[in-house]
Write a structure and sequence with these properties.
This protein is α+β, with helices and mostly antiparallel strands. It has helices spanning 16-19, 80-112, 125-135, and strands at 4-5, 14-15, 23-24, 36-37, 53-63, 66-75.
Length: 153
């Protein structure tokens, strides 16, 4: 027996098959008023550039009794200049994140050497040079991509 769902008084009844596209009527041994659930075969979504593309699941296809999931890759930007601007903003954001991360590492190394500057301790010239080199890390030419970390005395 088919189950019907009444959406409201203004709509015709809707069957389970209408609500779920994976409920199909088998072609052989079909008995009226029966439906069979067919699990779609899993197909992984294609690789995409998440900044400029999206993956959309499209209508599954029934081939030889197997429901196969289908995917479509769509470009988010039709204008190449807009696409390049998005990629550039992302590259800049990645560099800014890397710079913040490396500054945190530098700050931790400075904090670990703070004991040398306490009033009851005399800072050696090597420690002063090391701390100056740590403070100068963000001024390096390839910062934050490549960093020449000073060695602790």
């Amino acid at each position: 027996m088919k189950n019907f769902l009444r959406l409201s008084d203004n709509h015709w009844p809707v069957t389970e098959v209408d609500l779920n596209p994976f409920l199909i009527k088998p072609s052989r041994n079909f008995k009226p008023n029966e439906t069979e659930y067919v699990e779609p075969s899993a197909v992984p979504a294609p690789e995409i550039n998440v900044l400029t593309q999206v993956v959309v699941e499209v209508q599954p296809v029934l081939v030889d009794g197997v429901v196969t999931q289908q995917w479509e890759v769509q470009e988010q930007y039709t204008d190449s200049a807009e696409k390049e601007a998005v990629l550039e903003r992302h590259r800049v954001a990645e560099l800014a994140y890397a710079a913040r991360t490396e500054r945190s590492v530098r700050d931790a190394k400075l904090a670990a050497s703070d004991y040398a500057g306490l009033s009851d301790n005399t800072m050696t010239a090597e420690m002063a040079a090391y701390r100056k080199a740590l403070r100068d890390v963000p001024a390096q030419a390839e910062f934050p991509s490549t960093i020449a970390w000073p060695t602790s005395p």
